[in-house]
Amino acid sequence: MNKKNDINWYALYTKPRWEKKVDERLLLKNIKSWCPLQKVERQWTDRKKIIEDPIFKSYVFVQINIDERLRVLGTEGVLNFVHYDGKPAIVRDEEIEIIQSFLEVTNAKITTQSIESFEADMKVEIRHGIFMENTGTVIRATNKKVFVRLESLGQIMTVEFPKNFVAKI
Predict the structure, then answer these.
(1) How far is the C-alpha of 35 from the C-alpha of 135, rounded, in Å?
(2) Within a domain: residue 110?
(3) What is the pLDDT of residues 104-127, one digit of tens each?
(4) Distance CA 35, CA 169 (A)
């Protein structure tokens, strides 16, 4: 159980394309924040350029005591905390560490998808669990789960997956 004085990681919604600015502003306030970035190549009409691009669009992470939330919310570019069950959602240290370790891998590329990107009749590949490496068709998607029809052994099976278990193909 988390106590009021515990320091935890939280995710923030930011204005679109304000992730790096919000991170800088929070750090200037001595608030521990982190905007995961990866190097990507962008093509302009006259040249290519390597830039650092936020992995999670419109998200920044902060590690704070929940009593500091008003200081965080008062930061230009911050829209709100990501909420779960009516409270700011705590991001586990292990989840932050996993993202950090992926970013340390040379030539690794992390891509993210919002749940809105899963539409009915879309073909997906299962990336985790006992159905890993199987493909299926999205029946419907909710905020947290994707319902996928798997066709195997001449049978149609509908399986409910957490959204991070599937990827578009």
Answers:
(1) 33
(2) no
(3) 876 666 666 555 567 778 888 777
(4) 28
